[in-house]
Recover the amino acids of this structure.
């Protein structure tokens, strides 16, 4: 039976192993990773799916800003290959969106397949004035407003805005 929950410190190793299995080492080269590196996920927005004691799904949202306006970046979303097609990814997405909305966030952006994320309301029309820190395919750069005009008039380069991991400044300077 699948159980959705907040990610805990005890889940970190299992989540990283899941991401490595599903996405491989290229996940560290993606433009969104530049926004996540050295940052903590947005509070209350790191979610996992468990099948028994095994972590089989994960999604995180991150604080970002564009033109001084706050939003969230979603990703990565990952589901264990043996559990794909069972609704775990969809369940994590619905939970993440509902949680972000309940916490008062205005909008979410991501880079992903519009065919998949469109079912949750994500569209490229919401990101027309935004620029990622590295080139991305425009049709895959998607946004979702969590409240009316939650991404309205967002323009400019997206920058990380979340809380830093303790010691990240020292590691970056080395």
């Amino acid at each position: 039976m699948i159980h959705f929950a907040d990610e805990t410190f005890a889940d970190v190793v299992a989540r990283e192993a899941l991401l490595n299995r599903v996405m491989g080492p290229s996940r560290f080269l993606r433009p969104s990773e530049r926004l996540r590196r050295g940052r903590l996920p947005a509070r209350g927005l790191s979610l996992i799916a468990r099948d028994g004691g095994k972590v089989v799904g994960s999604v995180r949202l991150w604080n970002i800003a564009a033109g001084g306006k706050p939003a969230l970046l979603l990703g990565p979303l990952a589901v264990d290959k043996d559990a794909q097609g069972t609704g775990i990814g969809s369940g994590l997405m619905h939970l993440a969106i509902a949680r972000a909305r309940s916490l008062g966030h205005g909008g979410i952006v991501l880079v992903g397949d519009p065919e998949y994320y469109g079912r949750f309301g994500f569209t490229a029309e919401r990101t027309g004035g935004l620029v990622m820190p590295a080139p991305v395919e425009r049709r895959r750069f998607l946004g979702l407003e969590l409240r009316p005009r939650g991404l309205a008039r967002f323009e400019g380069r997206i920058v990380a805005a979340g809380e830093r991991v303790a010691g990240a400044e020292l590691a970056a300077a080395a």
